[in-house]
Amino acid sequence: MTDASPKKPHHHGNLREALVLAGLQLLEEGGPEALTLRRCAALAGVSHAAPAHHFDGLPGLRGAIADEGFRRFRNYMVDAEVTGDQTDRGRLKSITRGYLNFARDNRALFHLIFGYDLSGAGKAGADAGHFAYEPLRRCCAPFVPDGTAPQVVEAQVWSLAHGYASLYLAGRFWSGAPDGLFDAVMTLLDGVGATGALGTAGLGNGGETA
After folding, report:
1. What does pTM read for this prediction?
2. How many CA atoms does the CB half-sphere of 183 hold within 13 Å?
3. CA distance 137 to 160
4. SUPFAM superfamilies of this UniProt entry (predicted)?
5. How far apart are CA 156 and CA 207, in angstroms?
6. From CA 122, how far away is CA 111, in angstroms rounded?
7. How far is CA 46 from CA 16, 39, 189, in A?
8. Which of 40, 94, 115, 118 falls between 20 and 30 A from 179, CA-CA?
9. Signed CA dihedral, 125, 131, 167, 34: sign only
């Protein structure tokens, strides 16, 4: 069990970062219910009033944690991309593996960032979300057919990766599922940009996009 006793006070210059890291620790150890300003302050070794200087209440702290979560999420995808098969199709499949690995290693944080309303997050929060989305957009780009909105292909890949990760975390896959289940499901990505399964026939720039 992690020692949650008060630590030495942090200097003012890195207090915000210390509080975010304390929040991440509380989130992963106890889930959303464990995340409070008072507990973050105690874990960071500062007074319970200190977070008020950096965050607009608990929602502000959650937003700052979400920003850090999006950064880590992006790093998982990029790390998987650069260490995997360097063909276009290989990179596309690799980022979905990074997507799942992040969800598996950071369950509570995964739920937090995808439950976070970016529409009300302000410019910093929206930028963090868009920054995290960039590897997916970039790896999908080679498979966007002429006359098709890029968001169509991106939504296909995103939905497949996120759906699998969410079902995995919820324990919805039957016991005894083969170790290669994820890779088998991701063979659907072989059809991205073509017609048929995950194809784009009939979906042009006029359609609604995410």
Report:
1. 0.81
2. 4
3. 14
4. Homeodomain-like, Tetracyclin repressor-like, C-terminal domain
5. 14
6. 20
7. 11, 10, 49
8. 115
9. negative
For residue 198, what pLDDT is reported? 59
73 and 102 in contact (C-beta within 8 Å)?
yes
- Contact predicate 182/97, CB 8 Å: yes
Q: Which domains are assigned to the chain? A: 1-55 (1.10.10), 58-191 (1.10.357.10)
Q: Report the C-alpha gap between 182 and 65 in whole angstroms.
A: 29
Q: How far apart are CA 3 and CA 42, in angstroms?
A: 11
Q: Distance between CA atoms of 113 and 103, rounded to whole angstroms?
A: 11
Structure tokens belonging to residue 170 = 């919820």
Among 112, 115, 32, which Cα is nearest to 72's? 112
Q: Please tell me the total number of residues recorded for the chain in this structure.
A: 210
pLDDT at residue number 6: 42
* Cβ contact 98:79 at 8 Å: yes
Using DSSP, state whether 193 is helix, strand or coil. Answer: coil
> How many Å apart are CA 6 and CA 3, to the nearest integer?
9
Q: What angle do the packed helices 37-44 and 15-30 form, to 10 degrees?
A: 110
Nearest to 37 by CA among 20, 118, 110: 20
Q: Residue 169: count other Cβ atoms within 10 Å of its Cβ.
A: 15
pLDDT band with cut points at 50, 70 and 90 for residue 80 = very high
Look at 128 and 147; give whichever has higher pLDDT. 147
**Which one, of 95, 72, 56, lies nearest residue 24 by Cα?**
72
